[in-house]
């Protein structure tokens, strides 16, 4: 369980807090999607979850962030890393070795995983990400999308109880993005891993998230199941979050009194809903 209570943070260099009054409870095994306009504070929230705040960025920290009973302010970063595996937005800054296999091995060896488990974990993580063929490649020679997959594989190999990923599909094509989300959802379902993903594509998040969080100017504007959040497509647009056109269309029909169902997340759901409207 993750409990963020009345959390605010001001970077030493910023004039005012960049996130304020954040209250969020995330049960174990939940799939949480976070989105919001550029600069709204999404990455800052992920830094609070993976311990980078307060351990690497100096600033004013108020409130508390407690992960599986660990208050991130009371423990060292390594303790947080044992529980939270994270993939940051700039994956290049995350790599510590030059070969794909070494990168996945690095974390396992650092975490003291028994030798006889290591090969199985490396192979499984690479296979899960569909990159077994990249095992011996030099990381700097990979495409942006391939690098993202290596970064995710390195974290999956560690079997963290919580996964925090900041725009993990930014460099991926739609099919690979879907495959990564499928995999994350499988980890949540089968291993009870709590997954927190920052993502620009609200349609993709809505398809997978149990809880969709919208951040606006450092505050949580909505935190609810996706269909409930999508009901507010006009307000979302005003704060820089564009819903799929199918969502906006069905919301307009609801406003006109022509549709009474839940907000739709995609064209397929809109098609079904329209059948009802036209019946
Ligand atoms: N290390 C830092 N020092 C000072 N200010 C920072 C730092 N990192 C981020 N900020 C500021 O905090 C605010 C929120 O940034 P953050 O990166 O958390 O937002 P974001 O929603 O993730 O943005 P994006 O979608 O563009 O990645 C921005 O005004 C940003 O300039």
Descriptive overview:
- The chain is α/β, with parallel strands linked by helices and 279 residues long.
- It has a single domain, classed as P-loop containing nucleotide triphosphate hydrolases (Rossmann fold, 3-Layer(aba) Sandwich), CATH 3.40.50.
- The protein contains twelve helices and ten strands.
- Strands 6-7-8-3-9-10 form a six-stranded mixed sheet, sandwiched between helices. Strands 2-1-4-5 form a four-stranded antiparallel sheet, with helices on one face.
- A hairpin with a 2-residue loop joins strand 4 and strand 5.
- The longest helix is centred in the middle third of the chain and has 18 residues, at 174-191.
- The protein is globular and about 65 Å long.
- The model has no long low-confidence stretch (mean pLDDT 93).
- It binds adenosine-5'-triphosphate (ATP).
- Residues 11, 13-14, 18, 36, 38-44, 57 line the site of adenosine-5'-triphosphate.
In short:
This protein is α/β, with parallel strands linked by helices and about 280 residues long. Helix content is about 40%, strand content about 20%.
Features:
single chain; 279 residues; alpha/beta; Rossmann fold; six-stranded mixed β-sheet; 12 helices; 10 strands; 42% helix; binds adenosine-5'-triphosphate
Cofactors, ions and other ligands in the entry: adenosine-5'-triphosphate
The CATH architecture comes to 3-Layer(aba) Sandwich
The radius of gyration is 20 Å
Q: Segments where pLDDT lies below 50 for 5+ residues?
A: none
User: What strand order characterises the main sheet?
Assistant: 6-7-8-3-9-10
- Distance from first to last alpha carbon: 45 Å
Q: What is the general shape?
A: globular
The tally of domains stands at: 1
- Secondary-structure element pattern, one letter each: EEEHHEEHEHHHEHEHEEHHHH
Q: Major sheet: size, sense and barrel closure?
A: 6 strands, mixed
Structural class: alpha/beta
Count of alpha/pi helices: 12
The CATH class, by name, is: Alpha Beta
CATH fold type: Rossmann fold
Mean pLDDT, all residues: 93
Domain ABC transporter: 2-242
Family: Belongs to the ABC transporter superfamily.
Subcellular location: Cell membrane
Membrane topology: Peripheral membrane protein
């Amino acid at each position: 369980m993750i409990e963020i209570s009345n959390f605010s943070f001001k970077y030493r260099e910023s004039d005012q807090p960049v996130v304020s009054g954040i209250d969020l409870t995330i049960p174990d095994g939940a799939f949480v999607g976070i989105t919001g306009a550029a600069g709204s504070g999404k990455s800052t929230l992920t830094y609070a979850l993976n311990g980078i705040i307060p351990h690497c960025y100096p600033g004013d920290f108020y409130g508390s962030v407690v992960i599986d009973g660990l208050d991130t302010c009371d423990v060292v970063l390594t303790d947080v890393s044992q529980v939270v595996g994270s993939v940051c937005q700039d994956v290049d800054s995350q790599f510590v070795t030059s070969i794909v296999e070494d990168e996945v091995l690095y974390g396992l060896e650092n975490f003291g995983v028994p030798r006889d488990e290591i090969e199985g974990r490396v192979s499984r993580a690479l296979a899960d990400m569909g990159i077994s063929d990249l095992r011996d490649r030099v990381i700097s020679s990979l495409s942006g999308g391939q690098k993202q997959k290596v970064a995710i594989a390195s974290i999956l190999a560690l079997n963290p109880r919580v996964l925090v990923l900041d725009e993990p599909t930014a460099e991926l094509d739609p099919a690979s993005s879907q495959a990564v989300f499928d995999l994350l959802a499988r980890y949540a379902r089968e291993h009870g891993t709590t997954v927190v993903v920052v993502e620009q594509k609200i349609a993709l998040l809505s398809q997978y998230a149990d809880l969709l969080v919208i951040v606006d100017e450092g505050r949580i504007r909505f935190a609810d199941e996706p269909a409930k959040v999508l009901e507010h497509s006009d307000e979302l647009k005003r704060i820089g979050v564009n819903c799929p056109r199918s969502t906006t269309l069905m919301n307009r029909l609801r406003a006109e009194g022509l549709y009474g169902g839940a907000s739709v997340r995609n064209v397929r759901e809109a098609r079904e809903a329209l059948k009802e409207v036209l019946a």
